[in-house]
Amino acid sequence: MQNFTKGLLKENPILVLVLGTCPTLGVTTSAFNGLGMGLATTFVLIMSNLVISLVKDFIPDKVRIPSFIVIIASFVTVVELVMQGFLPALFEQLGLFIPLIVVNCIVLGRAEAFASKNTPLSSAIDGLGMGLGFALALTVLGAIREFLGSGAIFSIKLIPGDLMLVFILAPGAFIALGYLMAITKRLNNK
Amino acid sequence: MEYIIIIISAIFVNNIVLAQFLGICPFIGVSNKISTSLGMGGAVLFVITLATIVTWLVQMYVLKPLGIEFLQTIAFILIIAGLVQMVEIILKKVSPTLYSALGVFLPLITTNCAVLGLAILTIQKDYNLMEGVVFAIANSVGFSFALIIFAGIREQLDLMEVPAGMKGVPIALVTAGILALAFMGFTGLV
């Protein structure tokens, strides 16, 4: 249970560990994009954690990292093809950041720090918790930026007209994430 | 003329860090001092240019003729990981001085999404080899440019009094946001 909950807030991969910042900033132009990216990464995290902890005893220590990367890249390719087939609009929006899940430090980080030392079940749960923590942070950040930028959340208009458009553009991503991190730090310290 | 457009667009208008969100981890992580930023910039320039050339050749002469372009993600990340390792070994033998300057940054580069991102972007944009090389070099220069400016700002920032919650990464992100805002002024240049 603890393996699951720690990823959500206390060890949130984005807001506390500061891993995987590139996709975080790149895809969170709307809450929906954030959620889509978060779930895609969650799937990769669970599957790669599971498979890596299953095969960890057969992999010589020296070629550990390359083997992990191949496993991760295979699941990323699965996500890429499935999303292209069934959610082409989302695939178009996320674009380059789907193949870039391979180099997301969270995935390799969890493989190395957790899955290579623990049982398959707890590794999968760790992947689920970390993935959902990632998805949660992405969705919240996406919602904040979408709301401040266009007055909508999940494309539902709450305030008519455009607000501060800068939040949907690049600078807003940095600024919104900075403040979100500061708030999380404050909450965790209490 | 085409090359000049590629260069200006890559360095200023679509700056790889501040507009495309690639390579944020080293941008936040190693940008504390101007000297380390220079070292990182040099290592990135080296690896990105080499990686773009090799991945372009593999895409055109291996993946495409065989009709296995869906293996792009797996193939590219393996090439990059291998390349980084090779560069490290060769550099150690051939030029120990250069190695001691760039050495610590090389392992970090495998998981720098800018490398894989640029390799994929070059293919997506249908560049030929020469354009790809110019694109890669220009983007690395843009990366170093952003990194060095940011390091300069952060050196000053260390002397400031920052509210406890904003210390460290949060204030760095907000600063990066303001820097990105400044770079938005270049929009429409090409």
Structure notes:
Chain A is mainly α and 190 residues long. Chain A has one domain. Chain A is 67% helix and 2% strand. Chain A has 8 helices and 2 strands; from the N terminus they run αααααααββα. Chain A has helices at 2-5, 21-27, 31-55, 64-86, 88-94, 105-115, 120-150, 170-189; strands at 152-153, 156-157. Chain A has a two-stranded antiparallel ribbon. In chain A, a hairpin with a 2-residue loop joins strand 1 (152-153) and strand 2. In chain A, helix 3 crosses helix 4 (64-86), helix 3 runs parallel beside helix 6 and helix 4 (64-86) packs across helix 6. The two termini of chain A are 22 Å apart. Chain B is globular and about 60 Å long. Chain B has one domain (2-186). Chain B has helices at 2-13, 24-29, 34-66, 72-94, 96-102, 106-110, 113-124, 129-157, 169-183. Chain B is 75% helix and 0% strand. In chain B, helix 3 packs across helix 7 and helix 4 crosses helix 5 (96-102). Chain B is built from 9 helices and no strands. By secondary structure, chain B is mainly alpha-helical. The model of chain B has no long low-confidence stretch (mean pLDDT 82). The chains are: A mainly alpha (190), B mainly alpha (190). At the A-B interface, helix 2, helix 4 and helix 8 of A face helix 2, helix 4, helix 7 and helix 9 of B.
Q: Which secondary-structure class do the elements of chain A indicate?
A: mainly alpha
Whole-number mean pLDDT of chain A: 82
Number of domains of chain B: 1
Q: Which segments of chain A are poorly predicted (pLDDT under 50) over 5 or more consecutive residues?
A: none
Query: How many beta-strand segments of chain A?
Result: 2
Count of β-strands of chain B: 0
Specify the overall morphology of chain A: globular
Strand content of chain A: under 5%
Shape label of chain B = globular
